[in-house]
Structure formats: structure tokens, C-alpha cells
């Protein structure tokens, strides 16, 4: 399901965008994934490996953003472990990579049509015969402030994206990816001591 959990006030959205324009624009890099042409983005606090051969890396350490998002998600008992903030660009149909657990949170801060093809009915893998067939396609016009949850292993994409649209995507680490993530965060602790 694609479920809108809450909506941020327009004042909050404006404040976040001001912060992003002032502090995050210099950190943005062009998206390397071939399904997101023209999208600028930065990970925080760590960059996820998009293939099995890569590892996590330290990324943007913006306390303000991370605290805000953690507080927001604590209102629905969910704790993000990784995030990505992006500006502009469309993203073509894709599923999120192996690091990501099924349930993902999006925070939209601009104008977009957010599209979702629901084959897995819940936040878990099921075999073909238990998937929704044909998948249920939803396209939601968003204007800014929507906080929503979806299964990121279902195909999702954007259309009609405002070039100035900012968005956050938040993940928890999948069971499959947990030990690699744990090794990385442990190595950070060792380097600090
Ligand atoms: Fe995605």
C-alpha cells in the first residue's frame, strides 16, 4: 500500500526548504543511478551500497535534518537508519536495492506525481502466486508536505516533477543487509576511540 501518514504544514515545509537550499545545495552530487537522470542527491548519515561489491560510506552529517526526521518518524514508531535527500529530476520505475528493508518512508516537499505499482501486498516478500496480479497502480498528485509509507520493493517512480522539488527518502536496513551495516557502524566506533 501507499499510505499517506501525515502532512507537514506549509510553514514547516518552507523552513526545511530554506535549510536545504542554504546548507545542502553545496553537498549535492548528480545521481549515479541510471534510473534517475537529472536528479541531484546526497545521502545521510551514510551512503548505502547499491551493489553487493560496494560498502557503506560516511555521507552528509547534518544534525538538524537527522534530528527532525527522527522526531517525525518517532510519532509513528519507526526509526530511520539511512536517508537520501534529492532535488529535481524524475526517477523511472525501480525497486530499491538489497540494503533497504521493505517499508520505506518518503517525505515530499514539492510538486510531483508519485507513482506506485503494488504487487507485494504487505511489507514482505511473497511468491508470485500471492502477489497482486495485475499490480495495482496508484498515481498520487502531491503538492508538498506529504509523509508516506510504501513497500520499496514494489516498483515506484515519479512523473511531472518540479525541477525545484526536494524530497527525503528514509530506510531501515534489511535483514539480509544487517551484518554488513553493523560491521560498518562498528568500524566507525573503533576509529573514533
Ligand atoms: Fe526508490
Mean pLDDT, rounded to whole units? 94
Please trace the helix and strand order, writing H or E for each element: EHEEEEHEEEEEEEH
* Unreliable sequence segments: none
Tell me the β content. 25-35%
Q: What overall geometry do the principal axes of the alpha carbons give?
A: globular
> What is the helix tally?
3
Summarize the structure.
This protein is of the alpha+beta class and 193 residues long. The chain has three helices and twelve strands, in the order βαββββαβββββββα.
Q: Any chance you could write out the topology, listing elements then pairs?
A:
Layout: E1 3-7, H1 10-24, E2 29-30, E3 40-44, E4 46-47, E5 57-58, H2 63-74, E6 82-87, E7 103-108, E8 112-118, E9 136-142, E10 146-151, E11 156-159, E12 166-171, H3 178-192
Antiparallel strand pairs: 1-10, 2-3, 3-6, 4-5, 6-12, 7-10, 7-12, 8-9, 8-11
Bound molecules: fe (ii) ion.
Fe (ii) ion is lined by residues 94, 96, 152, 156.
What does this structure look like?
The protein has helices at residues 10-24, 63-74, 178-192, and strands at residues 3-7, 29-30, 40-44, 46-47, 57-58, 82-87, 103-108, 112-118, 136-142, 146-151, 156-159, 166-171. A 7-stranded antiparallel β-sheet has the order 1-10-7-12-6-3-2, with helices on one face. A 3-stranded antiparallel β-sheet has the order 9-8-11, with no helix packed on it. The chain has a two-stranded antiparallel sheet with strand order 4-5. It has a single domain (3-192), classed as Alpha-ketoglutarate-dependent dioxygenase AlkB-like (Jelly Rolls, Sandwich). With 193 residues, the protein is an alpha+beta fold. The mean pLDDT is 94. The site of fe (ii) ion has 4 residues, from loops.
Amino acid at each position: 500500500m501507499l499510505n499517506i501518514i501525515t502532512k507537514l504544514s506549509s510553514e514547516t515545509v518552507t523552513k526545511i526548504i530554506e535549510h536545504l537550499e542554504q546548507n545542502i545545495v553545496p553537498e549535492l552530487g548528480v545521481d549515479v543511478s541510471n534510473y534517475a537522470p537529472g536528479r541531484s542527491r546526497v545521502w545521510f548519515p551514510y551512503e548505502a551500497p547499491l551493489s553487493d561489491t560496494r560498502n557503506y560510506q560516511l555521507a552528509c552529517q547534518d544534525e538538524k535534518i537527522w534530528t527532525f526526521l527522527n522526531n517525525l518518524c518517532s510519532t509513528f514508531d519507526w526509526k530511520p537508519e539511512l536517508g537520501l535527500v534529492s532535488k529535481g529530476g524524475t526517477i523511472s520505475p525501480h525497486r530499491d536495492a538489497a540494503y533497504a528493508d521493505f517499508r520505506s518512508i518518503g517525505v515530499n516537499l514539492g510538486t510531483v506525481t508519485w507513482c506506485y505499482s503494488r504487487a507485494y501486498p504487505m511489507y514482505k516478500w511473497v511468491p508470485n502466486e500471492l502477489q497482486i496480479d495485475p499490480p495495482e497502480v496508484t498515481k498520487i498528485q502531491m503538492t508538498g508536505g506529504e509523509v508516506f509509507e510504501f513497500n520499496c520493493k514494489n516498483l515506484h517512480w515519479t512523473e511531472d516533477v518540479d525541477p525545484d522539488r526536494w524530497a527525503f527518502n528514509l530506510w531501515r536496513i534489511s535483514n539480509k543487509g544487517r551484518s554488513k551495516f553493523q560491521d560498518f557502524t562498528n568500524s566507525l566506533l573503533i576509529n573514533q576511540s
